Structure formats: structure tokens, C-alpha cells
Inverse folding.
């Protein structure tokens, strides 16, 4: 594995040269460094942080300042991976100018390499403006969580033929506007297959079947931090919930038993002897 930082050009090439792109979300420097050193191609500071980190039921409360804070932290842990930051709800929908300003801050203050925004055909003019400003854009179609209320919940999109056709139009419009990659979220595998074959840029799937040019998962989901959260598209590759629970129980047991801290975790004061300074008529401590 090369140590060279991964660029948008490398990502585009992977569509034809492979291997498939591996993207994962990260929200802090520690997890960023772990995934980066493990070989992640793309780290995404997703607005999923609203749910995973902040404990909200959806991503709508996430602000640009929140994403900036987490992006800067992730950047400090990242050496090789390509770093993408989500444009959160209402930081780009108002106007293309607003989008350039918000995205510019993510690159300038957060040290992101690119931004991701949600929406298809209707976002194409905004994508063009961002790309013209020198800001790489990753698209995101299908289940777009910032529209959770408009969509009537977190539901699979594009099941019917007309909706599937619109998804294809959306992805083509984003690619034509200059997106260098597109996330396909929660759509039937057949639709993702067709889109992947039709667009010239890589598709990165989540709940979109195996035909995409890459896959993304929320880092906490793939590590099994929350066993209760197990939608069909998530695979737990570890049981960190169990590992963390067991480690903490052992810490608690040792603290209560008085066996932690042990001698090797303990610092002692340097033993001193008391010496009298006859001139000043006072005592002071001197090493034994
Ligand atoms: O916010 C996020 O984590 C995302 C991924 C799930 C694609 O957008």
C-alpha cells in the first residue's frame, strides 16, 4: 500500500482499474488514524454524526460548525485517505453562493479535500458552481437522510420504475455537472447496477447491492458499537460493544477490589530527609 495521499484523480481511476473503493465515516482523530492506517481510501465526516455522536434521531440538527469541528479533528488523524466532509442541512440548499461559502469553509478551516451534498438533478447547478470554484463534489442520491420528512422516513428509494428512472437521471445530471463520485444509498441492487454502468464516475454504495464501484459504512456500525442497530445493509465486522463492556467491567471490578492502580501504575515521592539551614534557621527537604 502506497503512503501517497489519495486524490480525486485516483478515485476516478478506480472505476476502471479497481480495486473497489472503501469508504468509512470517522468523526474524530483517533478513529480517523485507525481507519487511515488500516487502509481506508476515503474518510467521510458524515452528518450521520448527528445520530452517532450527538444522539439525535436524524441528521437535521447538524450545523456547518459541527461538521467543521469534526472535520478538523479527523484531518489531524489522517495521512493517506481522501477526506470528504458532508455539507449539512441548510448549509447549501438556499443558494449556490451559500454552497460555495459553506464548502469553502470545510476545505479552508476543516482541511477537507472534498464535500458531499445530497440531491440529484436539482442540485446540478450548485455542483457546477462548486466545481467552478475548485471544490471537488461527491454526490449522494437515493435515500437522502436530510429529506427524511419529505421521504416519509428512512425508506428504500427507487423501487418503482419511474422512481428508478429518476434516480438514473439524477446520477447522470450530477456526473455531468462535475461530481467525481456519487453515493447511492438504500436503492435496489438492480437500479444501482444500472446507474453504475451508466455514469463515468465511481458509485459508492450503502444498502445498494454489490455492483457499485465502492462501499461505505458508518464506522461505528461496521465495528458493532450498537448491537441494537442492525438494518439489513449493515454488517458488524466486530463486536466492540462486547469488547468495551467487558473491558469496563474489569476496570470496575479492580477499582472496587482495590487492585487498580497496582504498583506498576503508581508513582512515589522521592524520599527526602530534613536538613536544618543554620544560617537562615529553617528546615528544608534534601534527597536521601
Ligand atoms: O452521513 C453519512 O454518514 C453518510 C453516509 C452514510 C454515506 O452520508
Amino acid at each position: 500500500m502506497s503512503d501517497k495521499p489519495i486524490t480525486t484523480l485516483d478515485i476516478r481511476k478506480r472505476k476502471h482499474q479497481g480495486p473497489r473503493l472503501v469508504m468509512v465515516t470517522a468523526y474524530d482523530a483517533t478513529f480517523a488514524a485507525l481507519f487511515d492506517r488500516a487502509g481506508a481510501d476515503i474518510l467521510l465526516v458524515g452528518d450521520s454524526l448527528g445520530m452517532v455522536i450527538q444522539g439525535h434521531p436524524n441528521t437535521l440538527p447538524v450545523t456547518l460548525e459541527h461538521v467543521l469541528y469534526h472535520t478538523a479533528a479527523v484531518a489531524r488523524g489522517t495521512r493517506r485517505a481522501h477526506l470528504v466532509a458532508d455539507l449539512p442541512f441548510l448549509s447549501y440548499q438556499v443558494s449556490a453562493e451559500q454552497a460555495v461559502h459553506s464548502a469553502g469553509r470545510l476545505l479552508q478551516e476543516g482541511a477537507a479535500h472534498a464535500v458531499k451534498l445530497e440531491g440529484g438533478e436539482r442540485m446540478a447547478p450548485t455542483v457546477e458552481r462548486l466545481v467552478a470554484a475548485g471544490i471537488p463534489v461527491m454526490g449522494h442520491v437515493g435515500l437522502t437522510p436530510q429529506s427524511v420528512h419529505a421521504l416519509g422516513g428512512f425508506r428504500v428509494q427507487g423501487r418503482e420504475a419511474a422512481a428508478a428512472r429518476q434516480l438514473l437521471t439524477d446520477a447522470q445530471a450530477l456526473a455531468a455537472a462535475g461530481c467525481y463520485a456519487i453515493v447511492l444509498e438504500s436503492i435496489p441492487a438492480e437500479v444501482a447496477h444500472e446507474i453504475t454502468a451508466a455514469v463515468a464516475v465511481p458509485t459508492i454504495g450503502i444498502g445498494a447491492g454489490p455492483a457499485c464501484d465502492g462501499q461505505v459504512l458508518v464506522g461505528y456500525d461496521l465495528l458493532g458499537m450498537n448491537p441494537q442497530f442492525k438494518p439489513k445493509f449493515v454488517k458488524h465486522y466486530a463486536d466492540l460493544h462486547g469488547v468495551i463492556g467487558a473491558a469496563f467491567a474489569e476496570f470496575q471490578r479492580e477499582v472496587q477490589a482495590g487492585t487498580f492502580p497496582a504498583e506498576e501504575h503508581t508513582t512515589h515521592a522521592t524520599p527526602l530527609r530534613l536538613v536544618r539551614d543554620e544560617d537562615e534557621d529553617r528546615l528544608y527537604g534534601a534527597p536521601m
Q: What stands out?
A: The mean pLDDT is 97.
